[in-house]
Write a structure and sequence with these properties.
The termini are far apart. α1 packs antiparallel against α8, α3 packs parallel to α5 and α6 runs parallel beside α7. The chain is built from 13 helices and 14 strands. With about 400 residues, the protein is an alpha/beta fold. It folds into two domains: about 120 residues, Aspartate Aminotransferase, domain 1 (Alpha-Beta Complex), CATH 3.90.1150.10; about 240 residues, 3-Layer(aba) Sandwich (Aspartate Aminotransferase, domain 2), CATH 3.40.640. The strands form four sheets. Strands 4-10-9-8-7-5-6 form a seven-stranded mixed β-sheet, with helices on both faces. The chain has a three-stranded antiparallel β-sheet with strand order 11-12-14. A hairpin with a 4-residue loop joins β1 and β2.
Length: about 400
């Protein structure tokens, strides 16, 4: 204990601090915790080999360039692409913008200004598409079925001779429902439209859907696969369809002239290792997430929750549930000291309105506002399920 001379106040320094248990984090679709291996590697490039990958005159620059090349190879391996196909960005939002807006000039030059996408895309796709409608493009947004996915036959029916781009997400961020990319790729084998997917939620988790050579553009975020925030990639399979992609920002020749700016080596190295680990630990992670899912559904079964989206097409680490007509805000507030859950995309969480995804699936405003998203990972500890059950029961 010591005395503050100026105020004559006694301040206790030997009193133990009260510790409050943190709620169990169940919002991994918003962002994941970082893998310790990834953090260790990033610290190395922040503290030891901190050179600029564009510096060619010393070993610091050479080491940085080698780290960037290795990361390209690691990211490419997940989707069976070449390392030369990997372009680093700040995340999937920038990748989506570059994929969609970067091909606009080519599309207009060819007189093919029809685009097909879906009503359940992330705003990072829908808003660039809105921008293209202002430039005279014709955008067709397909509605999903009640299960939360579009059918390949819907794509086939919507295709036109002037269709230039088809953009369909790999996995929906709110429901976890996997979209039929392989079947859509088969449809597009008989059409020369560019095929793009926002793979922020599925990259490194659902592997087969991204390995088709017919998939031209793939958007990736590191912070969804236990890597750092602030870095991602656009994987551009080099072919005639993507040959004339143009930058949407300017100021340097980095990343094949398509994405200017100093490459953030620690972040890029972190993304590369996170991608590598996603392959190495894929089976173990999947098994752990499936076990957690079974545990969660069993614990909440007395509440008879209604699953939103086709559970047979949902990734193992996420479920969207509603508990009768209880508003999701009430559920989240009741549980906030026990578990951290959400009611949709983190990018639109400041707006209290029904999810555009769930509305597109045919849910009423009330049902959409009752939906809660629970998403976990292989790192997630077991929550206090009895307390979760009691708190939700008390809301009825």
């Amino acid at each position: 204990m010591f005395v503050n001379i100026m105020t004559n106040i006694f301040i206790a320094t030997d009193v133990p601090k009260m510790t409050i248990a943190e709620p169990t984090y169940l919002d991994c679709n918003a962002t994941t915790p970082i893998e310790p291996e990834v953090l260790d590697l990033m610290n190395h490039y922040f503290r030891v080999e901190y050179g600029n990958a564009g510096s060619r005159t010393h070993r610091y620059g050479s080491a940085a360039a080698q780290a960037v090349r290795r990361a390209r190879e690691q990211v490419a391996r997940v989707v069976a692409a070449s390392w030369e196909n990997v372009l680093f960005t700040s995340g999937a939002t920038e990748s989506n913008n570059l994929a969609i807006l970067g091909l606009a000039t080519q599309a207009q030059k060819l007189g093919r200004t029809h685009i097909i996408s879906t009503q359940i895309e992330h705003k990072a796709v829908l808003e660039p598409l809105e921008e293209l409608t202002k430039r005279g493009f014709d955008v067709t947004l397909l509605a999903p079925c009640r299960g939360g996915y579009v059918e390949a036959e819907q794509i086939r029916a919507a295709l036109r001779p002037d269709t230039f781009l088809v953009s369909v997400m790999q996995v929906n961020n709110e429901t976890g429902v996997v979209q039929p990319l392989a079947e859509i790729a088969d449809v597009l084998n008989r059409h020369d439209a560019v095929f793009h997917t926002d793979a922020a939620q599925g990259f490194g988790k659902e592997l087969d859907g991204l390995r088709s050579s017919r998939l031209d553009l793939i958007s990736v975020s590191a912070h969804k696969i236990f890597g750092p925030k602030g870095v991602g990639a656009l994987i551009i399979r080099q072919n005639q369809r993507t040959a004339e992609m143009a930058p949407i920002s300017f100021g340097g020749g980095q990343e094949r002239g398509l994405r200017p700016g100093t490459v953030p080596v620690p972040l890029v190295a972190g993304l590369g290792l996170a991608a590598d680990i996603s392959l190495r630990d894929h089976s173990a992670r999947r098994a752990r997430c499936l076990a957690f899912r079974k545990e969660l559904l069993s614990a909440l079964d007395p509440l008879q929750p209604i699953c939103v989206g086709d559970s047979d097409r949902t990734l193992p680490h996420v479920v969207n549930l509603r508990f009768g007509d209880i508003d999701s805000e009430a559920v989240m507030i009741a549980l906030r000291d026990v578990v951290a859950i959400s009611n949709g995309s983190a990018c639109t969480s400041t707006t209290y309105r029904p999810s555009h995804v769930l509305k597109a699936m045919g849910l009423s405003d009330g049902d959409a506002q009752a939906a809660t998203r629970w998403s976990w990972s292989h790192m997630t500890p077991t929550p206090d399920w009895p307390t979760v059950l009691d708190l939700i029961t008390a809301l009825h």
